[in-house]
Amino acid sequence: MNASIETKAGVSFGDGRFLVRLPNDVIFSFPISGNRRFERATREQLVHVEMDDEGLHWPDIDEDLSFAGLLRGDWGQHIRTPEAMHNAECRRHNGEEHP
């Protein structure tokens, strides 16, 4: 993604990053890489983003990111699959992990 694409929500993306401009002109960015939903999405799905007071929502890929989380450095890169969650629960049950 070399060219920057502006969305209706004040979010643009290009060069592997989203750039967010809030209504108060605060600007921040975060990478697309590391978030499996973003990595698998089409350009059209990435452009279809909605912004509200709490954060950003991509309805086509069922991804929601809060502004609080984004500012902490969490852009969905820690998505856990049901299989990984099950395996972790089994390890805890067997005494291999402490909660």
CATH fold name, please?
NE0471 N-terminal domain-like
What is the helix fraction of residues, given as a range? 25-40%
Shape: globular
Structural class: alpha+beta
CATH architecture: 2-Layer Sandwich
**SSE succession:** EEEEHHEEEHH
Q: How many runs of DSSP E, i.e. beta strands?
A: 7
CATH superfamily annotation: Uncharacterised protein PF10387, DUF2442
The CATH class name reads: Alpha Beta
Low-confidence spans: pLDDT under 50, at least 5 residues? none
Q: Nearest-angstrom radius of gyration?
A: 16 Å
On the 0-100 scale, what is the average pLDDT?
A: 80
Please, could you describe this protein's structure?
The structure is a single chain. With 99 residues, the chain is an alpha+beta fold. It has one domain: 2-Layer Sandwich (NE0471 N-terminal domain-like). 28% of the residues lie in helices and 26% in strands. It has four helices and seven strands, in the order E-E-E-E-H-H-E-E-E-H-H. The chain has helices at 36-40, 43-47, 67-72, 82-93; strands spanning 5-6, 11-14, 17-21, 27-31, 50-51, 55-58, 63-66. Strands 1-2-3-4 form a four-stranded antiparallel β-sheet, with no helix packed on it. A three-stranded antiparallel β-sheet has the order 5-6-7. A hairpin with a 2-residue loop joins strand 2 and strand 3. The longest helix has 12 residues, at 82-93. The termini are far apart. The model has no long low-confidence stretch (mean pLDDT 80).
Index terms:
three-stranded antiparallel sheet; 4 helices; 26% strand; alpha+beta; four-stranded antiparallel sheet; 99 residues; NE0471 N-terminal domain-like
